[in-house]
Each structure stands twice: as structure tokens, then as C-alpha cells.
Amino acid sequence: MTGQPVTPVLNLCQQAELYGHSKVIKSPWQSFGLAIFAGAFIALAFVFYINVTTGAGDAPWGMVRLVGGLAFSLGLMLVVICGAELFTSTVLSTLARARGMITTRQMLACWARVYVGNLIGALIMLTLIMTAGMHQLDGGNWGLNALNIAQHKLHHNWLQAMVLGVLCNMLVCLGVWMTFASKEVMTRAMLLMLPVAMFVSSGFEHSIANMFMVPLGIAISQFADPGFFAALDLSREQFSDLTITNFVFNNLIPVTLGNILGGGVIVGLGYWLIENKAGDKEAVQTQRSSNTVSH
Questions:
Q1: Regions of the chain short of the pLDDT cut 70
Q2: What per-residue confidence (pLDDT) applies to 1?
């Protein structure tokens, strides 16, 4: 009787290595196209966040943030379940690089095209949202909420923005990491909810989400009708700090670096080093046992 081949059971770290490898070996155009979708998905999630947090009034601060965070988790669900390419999870390809499955050049090229694709997807959604006039919802309070969120993101100092990026992507990558434990779609979606809800409710910084959120604030401050500000008893000048330069240098760069450090280094390489050391120890023990038997 011929035995059936046994499929090896991979631990989560080994699955993460294959996950990172799969992202790098996709064709550039496929990777770029899927990255555009991911940028759009995260933008849609932020629209959902603004919807559920606008007009919260005297509701408890923590509960408003929790509901907003759960709403935002839609974005990572769409990315993971629909197979899009998101920069903040693509940085887990550091494991494949550490294993020698890809080169540094391949990894960085993948990161670059996914990052640019995410930006394009976010800006496409920004154009659609502004054209739809969503900033006028709830008597303009939707737009005011967006302005306040965007402006707040520019008021971190450089180190604070980077550390908030570290904390954010630790949670994003841990959420993705947990999905390796299941092949069931509903289970994978549920596993993503709490890590995302925590990072959003805590005010941690996600570079790709910010590619939509801060430019949205800039667009509203620059292009909204004067009647929009008059109805809210505000002036356009109150949001004069919402500029592309401030966004790029005071938020996007430090947050992106923090995202890489949190996801690619702390979670990715951290787990890889632990598992690699454990594997080396097991190999030594196996060799010792083999030597004992042979003697």
C-alpha cells in the first residue's frame, strides 16, 4: 500500500516568510495594481471612521474611539480577504529577506511600488469623496471632523510621530500574523478587528491611512466653498497649517519609518530571530541524539 505524501505543517513564522516572499515575486504590474486597491480600501475605511465619529457630542470618548476603530477595521479586512497589497503589511517581507529567499533590492523595489500604488489609490478615493461633496454632510460637521483629524496629525513632533507609527504597525502586522493561523474567511476577518480597533482608538499613526486623511483635510481647507466655513462659524485661515509640505515632512516621513520599524523589524525580524534560534537549538539536539544512537 502506497502511503500518501505528508504535507509539512508550517509554524506561523514560516508562513510569514512565505507570505513576504509571495508579495515580492508578484509581477510589478500585478503588485502595483493590487496596491492601488489597497490604498482605496484604507481610504474607504477612514470614510467609515469619520461617519461614525461625526456628531458624537457628549458620548464617552473611549466608546467613540472604539466604534471608530471597529469601523476602520473594514479596511484591513478588505486588504487581507480581497488580496490587495498594503505597504504596512508588505514590510513583513523582511522575514523572506532574512531567510535569503529574496534580495534586498527585490524587497525595496516591492516596497516602493506598493507604497506608490497605495498613494495613488488613496488620492483616487480623495478625488471621489471631494467630488461627491461628503464634507458637507451633517451640516458640514463631517468636513469639520475631517479637518480636525488631519490637523491633529500634523501637531506631533518628529519622534512622537515615528513612535506612533511603530506602535501602529506592530498591531497591524500582529493582526495579519494571526490570520496565518486560520484559512476560514470569517475567522480571519474577526482576528483583524481588535488589533486595528486598538491602534485607531489609541491614535497610533498609519502612513497609508494618512495618505488619504491629511490630503482630505488639505483639500477641504483649500477647496471647500466659503459657505461651508461660514455655516460652521469658522475661517479658512484656522487650518492654514494643513499643507503638503507640513504633511510630508512632519508626518508622512516619520510615520513611514516608524511603520517599517514596528512591522518589518520588531514584529517580523523579532519573531524570525526567536524562531531561528529555537530551530538551531532543535537541530543541535537532534544531531546529539543521532550521535548517541550511532555510538
A1: 1-9, 278-295
A2: 45
Closest by alpha carbon to 87, among 77, 95, 79? 79
Q: Which residues touch 235 (CB under 8 Å, ≥6 apart)?
A: 229
CA distance 278 to 275: 5
Cβ-based neighbours of 164, under 8 Å, separated by 6 or more: 156, 203, 204, 205, 255, 258
Q: What is the DSSP letter of 292?
A: H
Contact 95, 17 (CB under 8 A): yes
Q: What is the DSSP letter of 203?
A: T
Question: What is the reported pLDDT for 137?
Answer: 97
According to the model, what pLDDT value does residue 276 have? 83
Residue 250 backbone class (left: φ over 0; alpha: ψ -120 to 50; beta: rest): alpha
Backbone angles phi, psi at 224, to 5 degrees: -65, 145
The three three-digit cell numbers of residue 285, written as one number? 539536539
62, 54 contact by CB (below 8 A): no
Residue 158 parent element (H or E)? helix 158-179
User: Do 24 and 175 meet the contact criterion of CB atoms below 8 Å apart?
Assistant: no
Longest CA–CA separation in the chain, Å: 90
Reported pTM: 0.91
The whole-number pLDDT of residue 121 equals 98
Q: Residues 268, 173: contact at Cβ < 8 Å?
A: yes
